[in-house]
Structure formats: structure tokens, C-alpha cells
Amino acid sequence: MKSIAVYSSKGGVGKTAAAVNLSYVCSQRGKKTLLCDMDPQGAAGFYYRVRPKPNFNRKKFLKGNLQSFIRETDYPHLDLLPAHFSFRNLDLALDREGNGKLKHIFAGLADDYDYLILDCPPNMTLLSANLIMAADRVVTPVVPSTLSILALAQLVKFFDKIDADRKKLQAFFSMVECRKNMHGDTIKRFGKKKIFLRTQVPYLADVEKMGLTRQPVAVTRPDSVAAEAYDKLWMEVWKSLFRK
Amino acid sequence: MTLLQVAYAFASDTDGSNLLEHVKTIGELVEQEVLEDPFQYLDTFDWQLYTKGRVCMRRGVNQYTLSDFAGLDVREGIGPENAVPLAREFVSSPFAEELLSLVGIRALIPCVDVERKKHFFHLLNKDQKITLRLCLELHNCFCEGAVQETGGCIRLYGLRGYEKVYQRLRQIFIEKGLQERCGEDYLLQQALLGRKRRPLDYNSKFNVTLNDRDTIAEAARDIFLLLADDMSRNLPGIIQDWDSEFLHDFRVALRRSRSLLSSLKKMVSGDECSEMLDGLKAIGTATGPVRDLDVYLLEEEAYQALLPESLYQGLKAFFASLAARRDQEFEQLLRTLQSPEFNTFMSQWLDFLQNRFCSLTGGKGRQGCHSAAVKFIRKRFEKIIQLGEAIGAQSPDAELHNLRIECKKLRYLLEFYRSLFPEKAVDACIGQLKKLQDNLGTFNDLSVQQEMLATYRADLAPGSKKNMHIAAALGGLITHLQSDQQNVRKKFAKIYSNFATAEHKTLFQDMLDAPVVREKKGETK
User: Fold this and answer.
1) pLDDT of residue B521
2) Domain end point (choices B167, B191, B215)
3) I need a surface site. Which of A146, B288, B351, B521 has the fewest CB within 10 A?
4) What is the mean pLDDT of residues A206-210?
5) How far apart (Å, rounded) are the C-alpha atoms in residues B255 and B410?
6) Do the Cβ atoms of B477 and B459 come closer than 8 Å?
7) Domains of chain A by range and CATH?
8) Is there a contact between A71 and B160 if contact means CB atoms under 8 Å apart?
9) What residues pair up with B236 in beta bridges, in sequence order?
10) Which residues in chain B have their CB less than 8 angstroms from residue A56's CB?
11) pTM of the model
12) Spans in chain B with pLDDT lower than 50
């Protein structure tokens, strides 16, 4: 099982949209996929209309018996582990467990799934460190702006601080608006850096409408620019997983 | 990743809409699509697929599906368009290989045409999330132009994480008295209700349960009638030439009948028994050439494996001529089997068995079947030991041939009367005998094959290049077969001594001395 964490310390950068759509694309390619919603706001679960089971909470999650709380989405090969509100306190518990706890928990799913996609909460805490350590790839959406680039630089430092492998960090430009000069300039200046994937996800109404349709864009608008962008993004990430 | 699946059958007096009403009590039911799914069930005459828990379906003219009874493990492939296809006629593919491994040389015979109408539904919760998938199926079967409604079923596909909905609906259906099963096997059985064929209604393995209180004449008559039934059931398959095994099974039943009648010949007064034996023999003679050629034609690949590539051309020409000869012989066989003489004889044979056989057997025929079977088997076993002991390294092949015939007769006796003896004991004795028969049978086959090939080679007209190739291939084959035959002969002494050990003699003795097994299981006299 390969695991991909979609992570950013900033909120509203298209992180959950990326996790939801990447997991859908992955499953559509016939791979057994689990989307794990680690953000206590539960947006990924919302998009897939999946609520957590009533008896699910942070404690149960940390016990590692995830099988009974995973739920099937409406789409073949795609399951979801919904977040619970009590996940907001995961840091407290992880404080006692160290950075390898989540890696150990997710290892229990290795026989059931080909890909694990983690939708991470926007912060830079012990939970983030655990998620980064657990993942084979950390994909981070970057809105093309100065502050986002600074946040990316901070993230690289964070990787060093927790002794994570920098090579597994991949960024992509998200919510790109061509008409904005700053977006164009930022992409021009940083887009060729090794850390950036070639695919850019534009700022699109179809992605925003996911909040209304509660479905991946490729379901509601299969031929849309957004659906194509996530498909390309997945292929790029996927190929990189097998590159030495 | 659906883990939960169950189906409930319902009778033809409802269209299943009442069941959907129950579903609606626990969520919003939304119809998705309706699919018409007309297909045909196929299986071999002896239900090779059904026996192995598989069903074959054909959609359109050439789209085939192999599925397990639950419909979970499904394979698909494109195949021949002819009504009764053979596995080897499928273009090489994993599907064809699997089919071949399941049915071998037997043809796939259409059993029944089914039209399945599938209505797909989603059961949604308040978030409009699917919590259960459903499929309402309505089945119509077609046979000989008539339509028969066979009811239908409702299939539930539970979703992981939403087990409660699945279980709740299951509970409702169970409370309504619905039958919790509707696999492909069930549908096939329903579709065949009231038809001539039923799953597992034919098995090439001979199986008869005798009543130990019957006389030997009555028991023999019952066996004869079963064998006659086997012959008549295989006849259409021979005439249609669906596969080679119809003729094979027909001839096995014929040989068994001849063997049994010969063993009882002395009991039956009058000339009728001899006349019947002559009639059966004539059928054996008439059906022999096609079967012999079938055996060779089935061996083509094995023969090819024995030869270097340089001789393939000759071998191919040889098999082409065999196939042509088979066609000619088959025409002759058809004429025989469709002749008034054949039909008259078969009617006479049945009439003889049903109306006169028992009365003609006289006093000897009135002895109990168990004691008579014990005598027959013991006598035959002793004869085998007598013949076997006399065979040495230098003995002529004819002695092995005689021993083979005696072994075959003993095997038939054990199969005819097996229900009168303890099952495990008979199986053990048959198992021992089979090892010896395999050796003797292979020895004989190799001898007959060499003889046939040598005769064919001798009859080849000289001068033609094609015949030269054939002669070379046949020469190569004969050399191989000779060497194989010598090896088999070398093994005979050891195999025979293993068969005739004191331990195995006791095995036979114990079986014959065992108390009679009553028709009812567990009851012994």
C-alpha cells in the first residue's frame, strides 16, 4: 500500500478538494483506495456524504481498529474513513506516542488497499509530523502567492526538524488564476523548482460547486478542465511513487 | 468492495413490487436503470460444470460467461457460434483454458433459454448517500417456443460501513418468509422445472442401489434396465455427433450389458438369451470403428509430442486421413442407428428384460442377489489370481490380454453389486484392481495402436511423397509405442505382486464375508 498525504499548514488552499478528487481518480483506475479524513472538520466525509459511525472517536482511532469504522463511498474501489470531531485533540494523545504512531496504525490496512490518501488538517503540529512520517508522498497545494511560498519554505524546514525525507515532499500550484499578475509571476519564478509538480489546478467554479453537489468533479463534470487537472495531477504523483 | 450479498427468490405470482414497498420503509428508493439480459444456460450432458459449482451462460451468439453459483466469480470470453460448442473450439485464451479444464472433451449443450430483466435501485439515506444497492430480477424461460414465468429474485448488495441497513432489510425479508437463496444454480433449477433435463440427471459413472432381498434375476434385470436407459439417453448425442463421449458411454453400457448377460447365460433357458447376446454384439461391432477412430483422433496432440517437428507434416496428413475415414464410418454408423433393425432390436431387448428375463432364469435365478454376487465375484477373483500367478517374464502377450479381460469382468461385477457390500471395502477392492487394470489396459492400448499403425503403413501406396511422409511419421510413432509397451510390461510383475498380496486377498475376502448392506443406510443383516 502506498500512502499519499495531502497537506498544507494553510487552510483554504484546495487541500480537501485535491484529496477528494485524487482519491476518486485513483479508485477509477481500478485501485483499491482508502481516503482517510484526518481533519476534524470532516470536509472530505461531507463531500462523499459519509458521516462517521456513531461510536467512532479519537480513542477508537488510536487503538488502530480502523476496519470497523471504514465506510464504502458510492463509487467502486473507494472507501472512506470519516473524521470525528474528537480528532481535534489527536495531538494530545500523540504527544505520548511519538512520530511513528500513525504509520503503525495505517500499516494495519496494507492488505486491504493499494492506496491510502490522507486529507490532513491545516496546522503544523505533532499530528502533522505523524502524518508526514506515515506517508510515502506529501503533496502540498500552493496558491501562487508570496505568503504561500513562505509557508512552503517553512514546511521544508519542518521536514528537516522532524527528520523527514525532503524528497517525498511535492508541491503543486492550486487555485491558479491566470488573470492575476501575482499568480503568473510566482509560477514563473518558482514553477520550475524541483519540488513543484508540472500540473496546476486552476481556480474553477466546478471545484467550488463540489460543496453543493457533494461529489467529485469527475462525477458531475467528467469532461471539465477541473476533472482533467486532477487526473493529470494523480498521474504525476503516481509516476513519482515508482521513480527511484 | 461490496462484502455483503444475498438474494431472495419469489414465485411467479408476484412481480416483486410488494418487496420494494418493504424496502421503502427504511429509506428513499431510487430506480437507476433497467437491463434486459437474455441468455442461455449450457452444460455438458453429464453436468461437468454444475458438479464443479459452475454455470456457463451464452449471451448473443458468442459471448460466454463462466460463473460460480453465487455469481461472484465471473469470467467472460468470446467463443464459437455453433449451437453445441466444444471447449477446444474456443480461441486460445485464459477463458478457453479454464473451460477446457472444467469440461474437457465434452460438448456444451444448451439447457434452457432465460430472459432476465434487471431493475437496479439505490437505497439512500438523508444525505442522499447510497446505503444499499438492490436488483430486482424477473425471469422468463423459453423452451420449445413456450414461455414460462419462473418468478424472480431480489438481490441486496450491502455496503461496507452500512451493515445495519443490510441486516435490517434481511430481517424484514426473513420475517416475510422469503427463501434466502437465488444463486445461478437455483435459477437453472427453476428454469428446468418440468423439463426433460434436470441438473445432475446423468452421470457416466455407473451407480445402482440394489435391494438385497431381490433375487439375482431381479437385480440383474434392474441393472440391465439402467444400462439400457443409459444407452438410449446417449443415442441422440451420438446421432447429433456432439462429442465423442456419447458413443463412448453408449458402448460402455453396451459392454456392461453383454458382460452381465454372459455371466448369467447358463441360468436363462431357451435361445432368446443367445439371440440377445448376438444382437448386443452386433451393435458393438457396428459402433466399434467410429469409437476406435475417435480414440486416435483424441490422441493427436499426445502423438505429436512423441515426434520431432520434422515428422509433423506426415502426422498431420495421417490424422487428416483418419478424420476423413471417421466421417465415412460415422455415416455408416448413422445408417445403422437409424435403421428399423436397430430400433426393433432395442425394443425387443427392453421387452425381453421387462417381460421375460426373470421368468426364463428358472431356479438358479431365484437365489438371493447377495449370495449370487459373492459367488460371481469370488470365482472371478480366483480366476484372476490363477491367471496372474502363471504369467512370467517370458509369457506371451495373449496371457496378459486374457488377464485384462478377466479383470474387466471383475470390475463390472464389483460395480454392479457394490451396493450390497460395505462401501469402503468395495472402494478399496476397486482401487486395488484399478491399478492392475491401468497397467494391463495401457499395455493392450499400446499393442492395438501399434498394430493399427503398422497395418495403415503397410496399406500405404508407394510412390507418393505424402505417403512417404506419413510412413516416416508412423514409423517414428511405432518405435515410441514399442518402447513404451516394453516399459509397461516390465512394470507388470511388480504391479501384479502388489495386487495379489495376502493383505489384498484378505481385503477381497473380508468384503465378501461382510454382512449384507441393506438398501436403507446403516441397516445390515
Assistant:
1) 45
2) B191
3) B521
4) 93
5) 13
6) no
7) 2-241 (3.40.50.300)
8) yes
9) none
10) none
11) 0.75
12) 1-2, 521-525
